Amino acid sequence: MAQQVEVVRKVLSRGYNISPEALAFLLERNLEELDSLLDSVPDKAVIELEDLKEALKRIKKRAERRLYETGEDVGGVRIIKSPTNLGVKGSSDEFIELMRRRFQFLKSLLVKKSGVDPIPISNLLNSTSRNGDRVLVVGMILEKRVLRDFSIRIVIDDESGSIPVIFKKGSRYWDKADKIPVDSVIAIKGTFINGRLYADSFRIPDLNGELVEPGSASGKVALISDIHMGSRYFNEQAFERFVRWLNSKYAKDVKFLVICGDLVDGIGVYPNQEEELKIVDVYKQFQLASSFLERIPRDVKVIYIPGNHEPVRQAEPQPVVPEEYLDHLLEVRPDLIALPNPAMIGIGDVRILLYHGRSLNAVFKHIPGLQPIRPETVVEAMRWILRLRHLAPIYGEHPIAPESEDWLLIDQVPHVLHVGHIHVYGVGEYNGVKIVNSGTFENETPYIKSLGIEVTVGKAPILDLKSREVEVKDFSS
Ligand SMILES: [Fe+2]
Ligand SMILES: [Fe+2]
Q1: Same domain? 22 vs 125
Q2: Which long-range contacts (CB under 8 A, 24 or more apart) does 159-162 make?
Protein backbone atom coordinates (compact mmCIF):
# COMPACT_ATOMS: atom_id res chain seq x y z
CA MET A 1 0.00 0.00 0.00
CA ALA A 2 2.79 2.39 0.95
CA GLN A 3 4.46 1.65 -2.35
CA GLN A 4 1.24 2.39 -4.22
CA VAL A 5 0.89 5.77 -2.50
CA GLU A 6 4.52 6.61 -3.24
CA VAL A 7 4.13 5.72 -6.93
CA VAL A 8 0.98 7.80 -7.30
CA ARG A 9 2.60 10.68 -5.46
CA LYS A 10 5.63 10.63 -7.78
CA VAL A 11 3.47 10.48 -10.89
CA LEU A 12 1.22 13.32 -9.76
CA SER A 13 4.11 15.49 -8.59
CA ARG A 14 5.33 15.49 -12.18
CA GLY A 15 1.92 16.57 -13.41
CA TYR A 16 1.21 13.34 -15.31
CA ASN A 17 -2.08 11.51 -15.74
CA ILE A 18 -1.69 7.82 -16.04
CA SER A 19 -3.86 4.97 -17.37
CA PRO A 20 -4.77 2.13 -14.95
CA GLU A 21 -2.66 -0.37 -16.99
CA ALA A 22 0.33 1.93 -16.85
CA LEU A 23 -0.12 2.37 -13.11
CA ALA A 24 -0.23 -1.40 -12.61
CA PHE A 25 2.98 -1.68 -14.63
CA LEU A 26 4.67 0.95 -12.45
CA LEU A 27 3.60 -0.79 -9.27
CA GLU A 28 5.54 -3.86 -10.34
CA ARG A 29 8.79 -1.90 -10.61
CA ASN A 30 11.00 -0.89 -7.73
CA LEU A 31 11.00 2.72 -6.60
CA GLU A 32 14.56 3.44 -7.76
CA GLU A 33 13.61 2.54 -11.28
CA LEU A 34 10.61 4.81 -11.18
CA ASP A 35 12.43 8.13 -11.51
CA SER A 36 14.46 7.19 -14.54
CA LEU A 37 11.34 5.68 -16.09
CA LEU A 38 9.34 8.85 -15.57
CA ASP A 39 12.28 10.89 -16.90
CA SER A 40 12.13 8.92 -20.11
CA VAL A 41 8.40 9.00 -20.93
CA PRO A 42 7.18 11.39 -23.62
CA ASP A 43 5.55 14.63 -22.61
CA LYS A 44 1.83 13.89 -23.09
CA ALA A 45 -1.45 14.28 -21.25
CA VAL A 46 -1.99 10.62 -20.32
CA ILE A 47 0.80 8.10 -19.95
CA GLU A 48 -0.16 4.74 -21.44
CA LEU A 49 1.33 1.31 -20.82
CA GLU A 50 2.97 1.41 -24.25
CA ASP A 51 4.82 4.66 -23.35
CA LEU A 52 6.30 3.02 -20.28
CA LYS A 53 7.33 -0.11 -22.16
CA GLU A 54 9.06 2.02 -24.79
CA ALA A 55 10.77 4.07 -22.08
CA LEU A 56 11.99 0.91 -20.37
CA LYS A 57 13.42 -0.36 -23.65
CA ARG A 58 15.26 2.93 -24.17
CA ILE A 59 16.69 2.85 -20.65
CA LYS A 60 17.86 -0.73 -21.06
CA LYS A 61 19.47 0.11 -24.36
CA ARG A 62 21.27 3.07 -22.87
CA ALA A 63 22.46 0.99 -19.94
CA GLU A 64 23.77 -1.65 -22.33
CA ARG A 65 25.62 0.97 -24.30
CA ARG A 66 27.34 2.36 -21.25
CA LEU A 67 28.67 -0.66 -19.49
CA TYR A 68 31.03 -2.05 -22.02
CA GLU A 69 32.60 -5.32 -21.17
CA THR A 70 36.21 -6.21 -21.63
CA GLY A 71 36.69 -7.85 -24.99
CA GLU A 72 33.66 -6.20 -26.52
CA ASP A 73 33.92 -4.62 -29.95
CA VAL A 74 31.96 -1.40 -30.31
CA GLY A 75 31.96 -0.03 -33.83
CA GLY A 76 35.62 -0.78 -34.47
CA VAL A 77 36.79 0.02 -30.94
CA ARG A 78 37.76 -2.99 -28.86
CA ILE A 79 37.46 -2.61 -25.09
CA ILE A 80 40.66 -4.17 -23.78
CA LYS A 81 40.53 -2.90 -20.21
CA SER A 82 37.64 -1.25 -18.46
CA PRO A 83 37.66 -1.29 -14.65
CA THR A 84 34.51 -2.98 -13.36
CA ASN A 85 33.00 -3.97 -10.02
CA LEU A 86 34.21 -0.72 -8.50
CA GLY A 87 33.25 -0.27 -4.91
CA VAL A 88 35.30 -0.55 -1.76
CA LYS A 89 34.95 0.06 1.95
CA GLY A 90 38.29 1.85 2.03
CA SER A 91 39.55 -0.21 4.96
CA SER A 92 43.25 -0.38 5.75
CA ASP A 93 43.20 -4.11 4.96
CA GLU A 94 42.07 -3.32 1.43
CA PHE A 95 44.92 -0.83 0.99
CA ILE A 96 47.47 -3.33 2.29
CA GLU A 97 46.10 -5.95 -0.08
CA LEU A 98 46.26 -3.47 -3.01
CA MET A 99 49.93 -2.68 -2.32
CA ARG A 100 50.68 -6.39 -1.92
CA ARG A 101 49.19 -7.20 -5.29
CA ARG A 102 51.08 -4.36 -6.90
CA PHE A 103 54.32 -5.56 -5.29
CA GLN A 104 53.78 -9.14 -6.36
CA PHE A 105 53.12 -8.28 -9.98
CA LEU A 106 56.08 -5.91 -10.30
CA LYS A 107 58.32 -8.34 -8.43
CA SER A 108 57.37 -11.10 -10.87
CA LEU A 109 58.40 -8.83 -13.77
CA LEU A 110 61.76 -8.16 -12.10
CA VAL A 111 62.38 -11.82 -11.31
CA LYS A 112 61.62 -12.73 -14.91
CA LYS A 113 64.11 -10.13 -16.13
CA SER A 114 66.84 -10.97 -13.60
CA GLY A 115 66.50 -14.70 -14.06
CA VAL A 116 67.49 -15.08 -10.40
CA ASP A 117 65.26 -15.57 -7.38
CA PRO A 118 65.72 -12.80 -4.81
CA ILE A 119 66.43 -13.53 -1.16
CA PRO A 120 63.54 -12.70 1.17
CA ILE A 121 64.68 -9.79 3.34
CA SER A 122 63.94 -11.59 6.61
CA ASN A 123 66.17 -14.54 5.58
CA LEU A 124 68.99 -12.12 5.01
CA LEU A 125 68.51 -10.30 8.29
CA ASN A 126 68.18 -13.49 10.32
CA SER A 127 71.25 -15.26 9.03
CA THR A 128 74.62 -14.73 10.68
CA SER A 129 76.62 -16.23 7.84
CA ARG A 130 75.54 -13.81 5.13
CA ASN A 131 77.78 -10.92 6.15
CA GLY A 132 79.89 -9.85 3.19
CA ASP A 133 77.78 -11.80 0.66
CA ARG A 134 76.62 -10.33 -2.64
CA VAL A 135 72.86 -10.78 -2.82
CA LEU A 136 69.79 -9.84 -4.81
CA VAL A 137 66.71 -8.51 -3.05
CA VAL A 138 63.45 -7.15 -4.42
CA GLY A 139 61.43 -4.64 -2.43
CA MET A 140 59.20 -1.62 -2.53
CA ILE A 141 60.81 1.68 -1.53
CA LEU A 142 59.30 2.80 1.78
CA GLU A 143 61.45 5.84 2.38
CA LYS A 144 64.30 7.66 0.76
CA ARG A 145 66.69 10.38 1.85
CA VAL A 146 70.11 11.81 1.09
CA LEU A 147 72.65 11.46 3.90
CA ARG A 148 75.17 14.08 4.98
CA ASP A 149 77.89 12.54 2.82
CA PHE A 150 75.41 12.62 -0.13
CA SER A 151 74.95 8.88 -0.14
CA ILE A 152 71.35 7.87 -0.79
CA ARG A 153 69.65 5.81 1.87
CA ILE A 154 66.47 4.01 1.01
CA VAL A 155 64.49 1.48 2.98
CA ILE A 156 62.92 -1.32 1.01
CA ASP A 157 60.29 -3.72 2.11
CA ASP A 158 59.14 -7.13 0.86
CA GLU A 159 56.51 -9.51 2.26
CA SER A 160 58.95 -10.64 4.95
CA GLY A 161 60.64 -7.51 6.27
CA SER A 162 62.53 -4.32 5.51
CA ILE A 163 66.16 -3.35 5.10
CA PRO A 164 68.13 -0.12 4.64
CA VAL A 165 70.03 0.15 1.36
CA ILE A 166 72.90 2.58 0.73
CA PHE A 167 73.98 3.98 -2.63
CA LYS A 168 77.38 5.55 -1.97
CA LYS A 169 77.94 8.99 -3.48
CA GLY A 170 80.08 8.58 -6.58
CA SER A 171 79.05 4.96 -7.14
CA ARG A 172 77.93 3.97 -10.62
CA TYR A 173 74.21 3.80 -9.87
CA TRP A 174 73.95 6.85 -7.59
CA ASP A 175 72.56 9.17 -10.30
CA LYS A 176 69.98 6.61 -11.35
CA ALA A 177 68.98 5.86 -7.76
CA ASP A 178 68.51 9.58 -7.14
CA LYS A 179 65.63 9.55 -9.63
CA ILE A 180 63.71 6.55 -8.32
CA PRO A 181 60.72 7.72 -6.26
CA VAL A 182 59.24 6.10 -3.16
CA ASP A 183 56.80 3.22 -3.70
CA SER A 184 58.79 1.98 -6.69
CA VAL A 185 59.46 -1.73 -6.77
CA ILE A 186 63.14 -2.33 -7.33
CA ALA A 187 65.57 -5.26 -7.58
CA ILE A 188 68.89 -4.45 -5.93
CA LYS A 189 72.20 -6.25 -6.12
CA GLY A 190 74.62 -5.39 -3.37
CA THR A 191 76.77 -6.47 -0.49
CA PHE A 192 75.14 -7.28 2.82
CA ILE A 193 77.07 -5.82 5.77
CA ASN A 194 75.79 -5.62 9.32
CA GLY A 195 72.11 -5.39 8.59
CA ARG A 196 72.45 -3.07 5.60
CA LEU A 197 72.75 -3.57 1.91
CA TYR A 198 75.43 -1.58 0.03
CA ALA A 199 74.04 -1.39 -3.47
CA ASP A 200 76.12 -1.67 -6.60
CA SER A 201 73.33 -1.98 -9.16
CA PHE A 202 69.57 -2.10 -9.43
CA ARG A 203 66.77 -2.63 -11.87
CA ILE A 204 63.23 -1.31 -12.10
CA PRO A 205 60.37 -3.16 -13.87
CA ASP A 206 60.67 -1.04 -17.05
CA LEU A 207 59.63 -2.26 -20.43
CA ASN A 208 61.88 -3.47 -23.16
CA GLY A 209 61.35 -5.91 -25.90
CA GLU A 210 57.85 -6.70 -24.69
CA LEU A 211 55.99 -4.77 -27.31
CA VAL A 212 54.99 -6.64 -30.39
CA GLU A 213 54.52 -4.45 -33.44
CA PRO A 214 50.82 -4.16 -34.16
CA GLY A 215 49.50 -5.60 -37.35
CA SER A 216 46.91 -3.76 -39.32
CA ALA A 217 45.22 -0.52 -38.37
CA SER A 218 44.23 2.45 -40.41
CA GLY A 219 42.66 5.85 -40.02
CA LYS A 220 43.49 8.66 -37.64
CA VAL A 221 42.63 9.36 -34.03
CA ALA A 222 42.30 12.87 -32.63
CA LEU A 223 43.51 12.84 -29.02
CA ILE A 224 42.25 15.66 -26.82
CA SER A 225 41.58 16.37 -23.15
CA ASP A 226 41.13 19.18 -20.63
CA ILE A 227 38.60 21.22 -22.52
CA HIS A 228 37.06 22.54 -19.30
CA MET A 229 33.68 23.63 -20.67
CA GLY A 230 32.04 25.98 -18.22
CA SER A 231 35.29 27.62 -17.20
CA ARG A 232 35.74 31.33 -17.86
CA TYR A 233 39.03 30.37 -19.39
CA PHE A 234 37.67 27.76 -21.83
CA ASN A 235 39.10 28.83 -25.20
CA GLU A 236 35.91 28.45 -27.19
CA GLN A 237 37.40 29.95 -30.36
CA ALA A 238 40.19 27.40 -30.44
CA PHE A 239 37.76 24.54 -29.83
CA GLU A 240 35.40 25.89 -32.46
CA ARG A 241 38.30 25.86 -34.95
CA PHE A 242 39.04 22.27 -33.97
CA VAL A 243 35.42 21.19 -34.55
CA ARG A 244 35.33 22.98 -37.92
CA TRP A 245 38.57 21.32 -38.91
CA LEU A 246 37.08 17.90 -38.01
CA ASN A 247 34.26 18.71 -40.43
CA SER A 248 36.61 19.77 -43.19
CA LYS A 249 38.08 17.69 -46.01
CA TYR A 250 41.47 17.94 -44.27
CA ALA A 251 40.25 15.70 -41.48
CA LYS A 252 38.47 13.08 -43.53
CA ASP A 253 40.84 10.35 -42.28
CA VAL A 254 40.02 11.13 -38.65
CA LYS A 255 37.67 8.32 -37.63
CA PHE A 256 38.07 8.45 -33.85
CA LEU A 257 38.09 11.16 -31.22
CA VAL A 258 39.36 10.43 -27.72
CA ILE A 259 38.44 12.83 -24.90
CA CYS A 260 40.80 11.97 -22.05
CA GLY A 261 39.02 13.68 -19.16
CA ASP A 262 38.22 17.20 -17.93
CA LEU A 263 35.68 17.73 -20.70
CA VAL A 264 33.78 19.99 -18.30
CA ASP A 265 35.15 22.21 -15.54
CA GLY A 266 32.80 20.78 -12.88
CA ILE A 267 32.13 22.58 -9.64
CA GLY A 268 33.93 22.64 -6.30
CA VAL A 269 37.00 20.90 -7.66
CA TYR A 270 39.32 23.19 -5.69
CA PRO A 271 38.78 26.15 -3.32
CA ASN A 272 37.23 29.23 -4.94
CA GLN A 273 36.83 27.49 -8.28
CA GLU A 274 33.44 29.21 -8.67
CA GLU A 275 35.30 32.47 -9.32
CA GLU A 276 36.76 30.85 -12.42
CA LEU A 277 33.41 29.53 -13.68
CA LYS A 278 31.27 31.00 -16.40
CA ILE A 279 28.66 28.23 -16.08
CA VAL A 280 28.10 27.29 -12.45
CA ASP A 281 25.63 24.48 -13.18
CA VAL A 282 27.36 21.25 -14.09
CA TYR A 283 24.35 20.03 -16.10
CA LYS A 284 24.60 23.16 -18.22
CA GLN A 285 28.30 22.52 -18.66
CA PHE A 286 27.39 19.12 -20.12
CA GLN A 287 24.76 20.78 -22.29
CA LEU A 288 27.44 23.04 -23.73
CA ALA A 289 29.65 20.00 -24.30
CA SER A 290 26.82 18.23 -26.10
CA SER A 291 26.29 21.24 -28.38
CA PHE A 292 29.85 20.76 -29.62
CA LEU A 293 29.69 16.97 -29.62
CA GLU A 294 26.60 17.13 -31.81
CA ARG A 295 28.69 18.79 -34.49
CA ILE A 296 31.43 16.14 -34.57
CA PRO A 297 31.01 14.26 -37.88
CA ARG A 298 28.79 11.17 -37.56
CA ASP A 299 31.46 8.81 -38.87
CA VAL A 300 33.83 9.77 -36.04
CA LYS A 301 33.60 7.42 -33.08
CA VAL A 302 33.91 9.33 -29.81
CA ILE A 303 35.52 7.76 -26.75
CA TYR A 304 35.29 9.59 -23.42
CA ILE A 305 36.82 8.96 -19.99
CA PRO A 306 36.47 11.18 -16.89
CA GLY A 307 39.16 13.30 -15.25
CA ASN A 308 39.34 15.02 -11.88
CA HIS A 309 36.93 17.76 -13.01
CA GLU A 310 34.09 15.37 -13.91
CA PRO A 311 31.25 14.90 -11.40
CA VAL A 312 32.20 11.33 -10.52
CA ARG A 313 34.13 9.55 -7.78
CA GLN A 314 37.56 11.16 -7.52
CA ALA A 315 39.42 8.07 -6.34
CA GLU A 316 41.08 6.20 -9.20
CA PRO A 317 40.04 4.08 -10.99
CA GLN A 318 37.17 6.47 -11.69
CA PRO A 319 33.91 4.92 -12.88
CA VAL A 320 32.13 6.06 -16.03
CA VAL A 321 30.53 9.53 -15.71
CA PRO A 322 27.07 8.97 -14.13
CA GLU A 323 24.16 8.80 -16.51
CA GLU A 324 22.43 11.92 -15.22
CA TYR A 325 25.28 13.90 -16.79
CA LEU A 326 26.17 11.52 -19.57
CA ASP A 327 22.59 11.61 -20.82
CA HIS A 328 23.19 15.09 -22.22
CA LEU A 329 25.98 13.70 -24.37
CA LEU A 330 24.17 10.47 -25.26
CA GLU A 331 21.19 12.40 -26.48
CA VAL A 332 23.26 13.86 -29.29
CA ARG A 333 25.72 10.96 -29.62
CA PRO A 334 23.99 7.69 -28.71
CA ASP A 335 27.07 5.85 -29.96
CA LEU A 336 29.41 7.64 -27.53
CA ILE A 337 31.76 5.17 -25.83
CA ALA A 338 32.01 6.32 -22.23
CA LEU A 339 34.59 4.39 -20.25
CA PRO A 340 36.16 4.55 -16.78
CA ASN A 341 39.52 6.21 -16.09
CA PRO A 342 41.87 4.47 -16.86
CA ALA A 343 40.82 2.27 -19.76
CA MET A 344 42.52 0.53 -22.65
CA ILE A 345 41.05 0.38 -26.11
CA GLY A 346 42.18 -1.34 -29.26
CA ILE A 347 41.64 0.07 -32.71
CA GLY A 348 42.66 -2.45 -35.31
CA ASP A 349 45.70 -3.99 -33.65
CA VAL A 350 46.82 -0.78 -31.93
CA ARG A 351 46.37 -0.71 -28.16
CA ILE A 352 45.78 2.73 -26.67
CA LEU A 353 45.96 3.19 -22.90
CA LEU A 354 43.88 6.13 -21.73
CA TYR A 355 44.54 7.75 -18.37
CA HIS A 356 43.55 11.24 -17.34
CA GLY A 357 46.89 11.78 -15.62
CA ARG A 358 46.32 13.06 -12.13
CA SER A 359 49.41 11.19 -10.92
CA LEU A 360 51.63 13.41 -13.06
CA ASN A 361 51.61 16.04 -10.29
CA ALA A 362 53.36 13.59 -7.95
CA VAL A 363 55.74 12.40 -10.67
CA PHE A 364 56.83 15.99 -11.31
CA LYS A 365 57.19 16.58 -7.58
CA HIS A 366 59.12 13.46 -6.64
CA ILE A 367 61.39 12.69 -9.59
CA PRO A 368 64.31 15.11 -9.89
CA GLY A 369 65.06 16.77 -13.24
CA LEU A 370 61.48 17.13 -14.50
CA GLN A 371 61.04 20.84 -13.72
CA PRO A 372 60.00 23.15 -15.26
CA ILE A 373 56.95 21.54 -16.89
CA ARG A 374 57.51 21.73 -20.66
CA PRO A 375 56.56 19.46 -23.57
CA GLU A 376 59.89 17.59 -23.20
CA THR A 377 59.53 17.07 -19.45
CA VAL A 378 55.88 16.01 -19.82
CA VAL A 379 57.07 13.24 -22.13
CA GLU A 380 59.84 12.31 -19.70
CA ALA A 381 57.35 12.18 -16.80
CA MET A 382 55.18 9.85 -18.85
CA ARG A 383 58.24 7.70 -19.61
CA TRP A 384 58.64 7.26 -15.86
CA ILE A 385 55.09 5.98 -15.65
CA LEU A 386 56.01 3.33 -18.20
CA ARG A 387 59.34 2.51 -16.56
CA LEU A 388 57.68 2.03 -13.19
CA ARG A 389 54.83 0.10 -14.87
CA HIS A 390 52.13 1.88 -12.87
CA LEU A 391 49.87 4.78 -13.84
CA ALA A 392 50.08 6.24 -10.33
CA PRO A 393 53.53 5.12 -9.22
CA ILE A 394 53.77 7.36 -6.15
CA TYR A 395 51.16 6.55 -3.57
CA GLY A 396 49.32 9.04 -1.37
CA GLU A 397 49.27 12.26 -3.39
CA HIS A 398 45.78 11.77 -4.80
CA PRO A 399 42.98 9.37 -3.90
CA ILE A 400 43.24 5.77 -5.03
CA ALA A 401 40.47 3.27 -4.32
CA PRO A 402 41.78 -0.09 -3.09
CA GLU A 403 39.82 -2.18 -5.56
CA SER A 404 40.22 -5.93 -5.64
CA GLU A 405 42.27 -5.54 -8.80
CA ASP A 406 44.99 -2.93 -9.34
CA TRP A 407 43.63 -1.34 -12.51
CA LEU A 408 46.44 1.21 -12.58
CA LEU A 409 49.16 -1.38 -13.12
CA ILE A 410 50.58 -1.41 -16.62
CA ASP A 411 50.50 -5.15 -17.10
CA GLN A 412 49.71 -5.15 -20.79
CA VAL A 413 52.04 -2.75 -22.60
CA PRO A 414 50.14 -0.35 -24.88
CA HIS A 415 51.30 0.89 -28.27
CA VAL A 416 50.12 4.38 -27.37
CA LEU A 417 49.83 6.02 -23.95
CA HIS A 418 47.42 8.96 -23.98
CA VAL A 419 47.34 11.20 -20.91
CA GLY A 420 46.15 14.75 -20.23
CA HIS A 421 45.67 16.72 -17.00
CA ILE A 422 48.89 18.72 -16.96
CA HIS A 423 47.67 21.22 -19.63
CA VAL A 424 50.98 21.05 -21.49
CA TYR A 425 51.10 18.88 -24.59
CA GLY A 426 53.96 16.54 -25.29
CA VAL A 427 54.64 13.88 -27.89
CA GLY A 428 57.42 11.36 -27.69
CA GLU A 429 58.30 7.73 -27.49
CA TYR A 430 59.65 5.15 -25.11
CA ASN A 431 60.85 1.73 -26.22
CA GLY A 432 58.33 1.58 -29.01
CA VAL A 433 55.43 3.10 -27.05
CA LYS A 434 54.10 6.34 -28.46
CA ILE A 435 53.58 8.88 -25.69
CA VAL A 436 50.99 11.60 -26.12
CA ASN A 437 49.85 14.27 -23.74
CA SER A 438 47.03 16.20 -25.28
CA GLY A 439 47.47 19.59 -23.58
CA THR A 440 44.34 21.67 -23.14
CA PHE A 441 41.70 23.96 -24.61
CA GLU A 442 41.67 26.11 -21.51
CA ASN A 443 43.67 29.32 -21.25
CA GLU A 444 45.89 29.86 -18.25
CA THR A 445 43.82 30.06 -15.06
CA PRO A 446 45.06 31.77 -11.88
CA TYR A 447 45.18 28.31 -10.27
CA ILE A 448 47.37 26.80 -13.01
CA LYS A 449 49.54 29.92 -12.95
CA SER A 450 50.05 29.48 -9.21
CA LEU A 451 51.43 26.01 -10.00
CA GLY A 452 54.01 27.58 -12.31
CA ILE A 453 52.71 25.75 -15.38
CA GLU A 454 52.93 27.38 -18.82
CA VAL A 455 49.91 25.92 -20.58
CA THR A 456 49.82 25.01 -24.27
CA VAL A 457 46.33 25.85 -25.50
CA GLY A 458 44.47 24.55 -28.55
CA LYS A 459 46.88 21.90 -29.77
CA ALA A 460 45.41 18.58 -30.82
CA PRO A 461 47.69 15.59 -31.43
CA ILE A 462 46.45 13.51 -34.36
CA LEU A 463 47.61 9.90 -34.34
CA ASP A 464 47.98 7.99 -37.58
CA LEU A 465 47.14 4.41 -36.65
CA LYS A 466 49.08 2.92 -39.51
CA SER A 467 52.41 4.71 -39.10
CA ARG A 468 51.79 5.61 -35.45
CA GLU A 469 53.16 9.05 -36.24
CA VAL A 470 51.59 11.96 -34.38
CA GLU A 471 50.98 15.30 -35.97
CA VAL A 472 50.21 18.14 -33.56
CA LYS A 473 47.58 20.45 -35.07
CA ASP A 474 47.48 23.97 -33.69
CA PHE A 475 44.05 25.59 -33.31
CA SER A 476 45.16 28.38 -31.01
CA SER A 477 44.95 31.07 -33.68
FE1 LIG B 1 42.45 19.72 -16.78
FE1 LIG C 1 42.78 17.19 -14.71
Answers
A1: no
A2: 159/100, 159/103, 159/120, 160/120, 160/121, 160/122, 160/123, 161/120, 161/121, 161/122, 161/125, 162/121
